Amino acid sequence: MPVVVRIHMQHDRLVPVYLRIVFGTKALNTIVQECASAPAGTWSLRAEIPPLPPHHIDPSRKIFLSVQALSEDSIVIDSVTFGEFYLWGHSEYRV
After folding, report:
1. b/e string for 53-91 if b means 16 or more Cβ within 10 A?
2. Are 5 and 45 a contacting pair, CB within 8 Å?
3. CA gap 87, 59 in Å, rounded
């Protein structure tokens, strides 16, 4: 299941910052691009939520989607949650 997030972030460009999408507690491989047609500091993040094994599915368990900003050393500098989901069936998500 693809996830696309647009986020506005300002930071000191002298210090590298890395962004990623997190599904629950799992960091996802994230493609990050600056949005040329939007105000400076607007970024587009794209990732794929992997299918979950059936034993991970619990319709009562809420799963959060977040964006994390990381330092060069992979230390989380900041995090923002932008969605929450429930798993109803194998790879079936409900907002």
Report:
1. eeeeeeeeeebebbbbbbeeeeeeeeeeeeeebebeeee
2. yes
3. 5
Beta-carbon contacts of 92 under 8 Å, excluding residues fewer than 6 positions away, are none
pLDDT in tens, 15-46: 889 999 999 889 999 999 999 888 888 999 99
What's the predicted TM-score (pTM) here? 0.81
Per-position b or e across 10-21, b if 16+ CB within 10 A of its CB: eeeeeeeeebbb
Residues 69, 78 contacting (CB under 8 angstroms)? yes
Domain ranges of the chain: 2-94
